[in-house]
Specification:
Strand content of chain A: 5-15%
Oligomer: homodimer
Mean pLDDT of chain A: 88
Distance between the termini of chain A: 42 Å
Subcellular location (chains A, B): Endoplasmic reticulum; Golgi apparatus, cis-Golgi network
CATH superfamily of chain A: Trafficking protein particle complex subunit 3
Largest sheet of chain A: 4 strands, antiparallel
GO biological process, one term (chains A, B): nervous system development
Keywords (chains A, B): Endoplasmic reticulum, Golgi apparatus, Neurogenesis
Main location (chains A, B): endoplasmic reticulum
Number of helices of chain A: 4
InterPro entries (chains A, B): NO_sig/Golgi_transp_ligand-bd, TRAPP_component, TRAPPC6/Trs33
Shape of chain A: globular
CATH topology of chain A: Muramoyl-pentapeptide Carboxypeptidase, domain 2
């Protein structure tokens, strides 16, 4: 109980700090994009660190789908205390991970009034996923969308080189 | 295992972000003091939130020493995975909490070469303690010192009004 709260509170505080900090510099236009990118970058580095620990004793993965299943199950449980509820793929490098009760959104009302605030609480987690996948050799673009809180969809698009 | 790593990594990333950010503004002189105070403030608010959760089902405390014992045991275990190793007081409002293996310092070498880096990794935790105590009605000044990593001493001085 305690630790997810610890992580959630620290995350909230960090988001709030980064947005306030940006606002205090008076760069209103660049605001949102810069904050999202800062948070995403922090998540990316943490994701890289975490996946190294989590996969230390894991056998190697046989393909991309296998990696994604690991992210949906082991990684998600370790970070967010539950599995991804639904994983879908077009078998061409796009994956959609749906979490019906995303840990970092559960403190919000599930009404619509905070819906526009949601993206800033997802940037860090997008980075976490991108960092984890990057360390497993998969370059991806990770985005998230919320239509009804606290449910959330992460879209992972693998970048073919 | 996973969660303390999650918290530790996020904490590291946050410290690094706040120091880099400050440096990029070219305000070298104010640097250290501002960063420490930013981190301390974030810790303070998280500490306030955490203590509310942790004491939800606790009986009320009978005196300051009783509160400090709660911080050393329950609070510390929940946040840092172990108890404080030694609590000392002068019975006049000053308490010294010694942690012989402080979680946020264990990733450093225990040699002397990183000793001067240590304070920036303690500011957030000082804030955590101050925030927790503040919500329990005790206004304090909390400082920390390291003489041999990863051991660490927190000094709490209650402010008499």
């Amino acid at each position: 109980m305690a630790d997810d709260v610890l992580f959630e509170f620290l995350h909230m505080e960090m988001v709030s700090h980064i947005y306030k900090d940006q606002a205090s510099r008076g760069e209103m236009d660049k605001d949102r994009a810069t904050c999202v990118s800062t948070l995403e970058g922090m998540g990316f580095r943490v994701g890289q660190g975490l996946i190294e620990r989590f996969t230390k004793d894991s056998p190697s993965f046989k393909d991309d789908l296998d990696v994604m299943k690991f992210i949906c199950k082991d990684f998600w449980i370790n970070v967010f205390r539950k599995q991804i509820d639904n994983l879908r793929t077009n078998h061409q490098g796009t994956y959609v991970l749906q979490d019906n009760k995303f840990a970092l959104l559960t403190q919000f009302s599930n009404g619509k009034q905070y819906l526009e605030e949601a993206p800033k609480y997802l940037a860090y987690s997008c980075g976490l996923v991108r960092g984890a996948l990057s360390n497993l050799g998969m370059d991806c673009v990770v985005t998230a969308e919320v239509s009804l809180m606290p449910s959330c969809k992460f879209q992972v698009v693998i970048q073919k080189i």
